[in-house]
What we know:
Blueprint: H1 4-14, E1 19-25, E2 28-33, H2 34-50, E3 58-62, H3 67-78, E4 82-86, H4 92-102, E5 106-109, H5 112-119, E6 133-136, E7 147-149, H6 150-161, H7 169-175, E8 181-186, E9 196-200, H8 201-215, E10 223-226, H9 233-245, E11 249-252, H10 259-266, E12 270-273, H11 275-290, H12 294-316, H13 322-343, E13 350-353, H14 360-369, E14 373-377, E15 387-388, E16 407-410, E17 415-419, E18 426-427, H15 431-437, E19 444-452, E20 458-463, E21 468-469, E22 475-476, H16 478-485, E23 491-497, E24 504-510, H17 512-519, E25 525-526, E26 529-530, H18 533-547, E27 556-561, H19 581-587, H20 589-595
Parallel strand pairs: 1-11, 3-4, 3-5, 4-8, 5-6, 6-7, 10-11, 12-13, 13-14, 24-27
Antiparallel strand pairs: 1-2, 8-9, 9-18, 14-15, 16-17, 17-19, 19-20, 21-22, 23-24, 25-26
Helix pairs in contact: 1-2, 1-9, 2-3, 2-6, 8-9, 12-13, 12-14
Amino acid sequence: xxxxxxxxxxxxxxxxxxxxxxxxxxxxxxxxxxxxxxxxxxxxxxxxxxxxxxxxxxxxxxxxxxxxxxxxxxxxxxxxxxxxxxxxxxxxxxxxxxxxxxxxxxxxxxxxxxxxxxxxxxxxxxxxxxxxxxxxxxxxxxxxxxxxxxxxxxxxxxxxxxxxxxxxxxxxxxxxxxxxxxxxxxxxxxxxxxxxxxxxxxxxxxxxxxxxxxxxxxxxxxxxxxxxxxxxxxxxxxxxxxxxxxxxxxxxxxxxxxxxxxxxxxxxxxxxxxxxxxxxxxxxxxxxxxxxxxxxxxxxxxxxxxxxxxxxxxxxxxxxxxxxxxxxxxxxxxxxxxxxxxxxxxxxxxxxxxxxxxxxxxxxxxxxxxxxxxxxxxxxxxxxxxxxxxxxxxxxxxxxxxxxxxxxxxxxxxxxxxxxxxxxxxxxxxxxxxxxxxxxxxxxxxxxxxxxxxxxxxxxxxxxxxxxxxxxxxxxxxxxxxxxxxxxxxxxxxxxxxxxxxxxxxxxxxxxxxxxxxxxxxxxxxxxxxxxxxxxxxxxxxxxxxxxxxxxxxxxxxxxxxxxxxxxxxxxxxxxxxxxxxxxxxxxxxxxxxxxx
Length: 597
C-alpha cells in the first residue's frame, strides 16, 4: 500500500462501518464511516475530473479543519493532481499569493466568511479569473456564479460513478505514482513569501510508518483531535497519516476558539500540540489553582509534589516506598486524575509536541500530572520528522534521536542535516531555493543548530538565522535563555533583542492570568507596556536570578514588559505559534531603540 489512498481503500474494505471521522453538529458528534469517507473521496474525484481537473492542476483549500477539507484534499490527489492548503488566518495578500503561485483553477472554501477573506469588498469580482470552479463546504453558493456546494459535487460524482464505463476507484489507485509530488505545503515562514514545499505520498507514508514504529503505536482503537491547521505538516501527519495509517478516529474541533471546551469531549488517545498550547494548558491550570481557596491550593501543591516523586521514580527505574505509593494513589484520585480529565487527557496514552522546542519546565509539569509528552523535531521539508524522543525515557529539554531509516548528522557549524525517503521533492517553481536547501549528496540543511547530550539525544540550540552577534563580537543563541526565563510563573513569552548592539535586552509578555489580575489594578498598564512597580520588580528578580547563570555577554541588561502577548492576528507569530522576530522588532522598534540610548 504505497499511498494514503491505498491505505484508506483497504481500511474501508476490511472494516466499512468503522468510524473514521467525527464532527460537531448541535453539540453532538456526527460520525463518518470508513466506507462513507472513501466513497466521498472517490465521488469528488469523479466530479473534479468532469469539471476538467487534470494531473497538471493544483486544488487549493481555504477553510478551518473539517471532514470536507480532507475529502477534497484526497480527491485531488486521487486524480494524480496536487493540493495546497491555505492557512485559515491568512491575510488577503497571502491568499492571493498562493492562488497566483499555484495558478489554481479549483478553489474549495468553507463558507461565505472565508470567501470574503479572499475577495474583500469586491465580492465575486475579487476572485482570480483563472478560478473556474469554487466548491463551498457549507453549501452557500451565493458567493460566486461558478460556485458548487460540496453536497452537489458529491451527488454529481455519485451519479457519474453509476454510469457505464465510469472510472473505478481501483482505476484511479492503479494510476497513482507514489513518488510524484502530491501534497503541497506552504511554509508559514518567519520572513518573506512562503515557499511551496512538494511532498509525495511516499514521503508521508514512509515517515508516518517510521514514526509509528519508533513510538510503538498499534493500529486501530485510537482517537485523534484535529485543530492544528490542516495545511501544516504537523496536522497532515496526524490527521491523514495517523488517522488513515493508524486507523484512528479523527475528531474535528468546530473552531479554534472552542478547542479547550471540545478537547474533553473528544477524549483523544493521541494528542499532538505545539509548545505554546501545552504552555497555555499549564498556565490555565496554574492560574485556577492560584485562585482556589487556601486548603485546595495546599492539596494541589501536595498532589503535584507526589506526582513529581512518582515520575522521578519511574524514569529512574525504581519503585516508590509503600508510604509514598499510598500517598501518590491518593493524590492521583483526589487531584491529578481530575486535572487530566478537565484538560481532555483522560484517555490519552500518547502526547506529542512539535513545530518548536518544548520548554523543560512545561515537560516536567506534565510529568508531575502523570503525562509524558514526547517531542518531535522536524520541518515541512523533512515531512515533519527528523528526531523523536523515546517513550519511557526522561528526555525533557531534548528532541531525541532519529527514527530507524532516517540519516541524521551534525555539520561542523552545528547545523542538523538529514537524508532519506522523508526528504521532500523540492520547492514549487523555485529550483534555486531547493538547491540551497538540499545539497548534491541529498542532505537536507535544516537551518537548526543542535548538540548531542551524553545520552546521545539531540538538544536544539536555536535557528542559525536567529543567532545574535553583539557589537563586541560575542555570539548569543537566544533560545535557551528565552526558555529559561519563560519558566517564571508570570511570564508567557520572551523575545531577546540586541543583534549588533552592546548588550542583550528582552521584550517580555505575561500570562493571561497575570494580565487579568493587572486589568483590575489602577495604573498597572501604560499603553504598550506594563509599568506597575510590583510586576516590574518581580520580572527583574527572575532576570537577575537567570543572569547569575549566564556569561556576561549573554546577560539581559534591559527589558520591557508588554501589555499584550505576541499574536498571530498582528503577524507576530506564525500559525504554529512561533515568534516572527523581525515583525516583533519592527513593531517595537522605538521601545528597543530606547534600550540603547
